[in-house]
Amino acid sequence: MRIFLAAALLMPTPALAQDKAPAADLQGETSPAAAPPLSVDSPIEAIIADPAGKAILDAEMPTLVAHPAFEQFKSMSLRQLQPYSAGAITDEKIAAVEARLAAIDRAKN
What we know:
Layout: H1 2-10, H2 44-49, H3 51-60, H4 70-73, H5 78-81, H6 91-108
Helix pairs in contact: 3-6
């Protein structure tokens, strides 16, 4: 009996908590999850991945993406990077980027 129980415990079984497949719409296609709106709290790399977001950063902070340390701070948000920017990222620039990002989010919806 113990051998049977031990063998049963060692047998491969399906995982109990598996990821469910994305819900299909009426045509049988899967719908992508809606991306969260971009903001100054989004990672910089997420903002530049969106063409409109990259255009905003290029206009408001033209040297940001070309900065030599970009690879080291691209996962940070603008708010997180601000204290390390030696005054280059001002509250005014953050507010301008935030307003423009909100405008593109409204335009998408």
